[in-house]
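Student: I would love a firmer grasp of how sequence relates to backbone shape in proteins. Thank you; the sequence and its tokens follow:
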Amino acid sequence: ADSLWQQYKEKYPDQLYGYTYRIKCNEALDTAMLLGLSVPHWESMVVFAGRDTVKYKTQLVGSLYKLVVYYVNIKKDTPKAIEYLTQYLLYDPNNTEAKKILDKLKAVGGN
């Protein structure tokens, strides 16, 4: 199924569906995020959704959130998690939980 959505994404790069379903396919294959299969697809969604942050805000913040979770819990890469969380807060600046998490990450060794 993933290869089908890759073809769809290549044929229709300006449509959301290819990006969304590549994420869903890879999340289903790697439910614990241990293999990082979804990472390039979340990153791709961030780029795609960044073209229209109003229209695709849900997809943008959702992918940024998943990247934060991955880099904190799986990769243990606090600076990278801070980078994505800082970007997340640009689009959801009133999220008090995200601000608290960012403060904690900075306190434990981030930038």
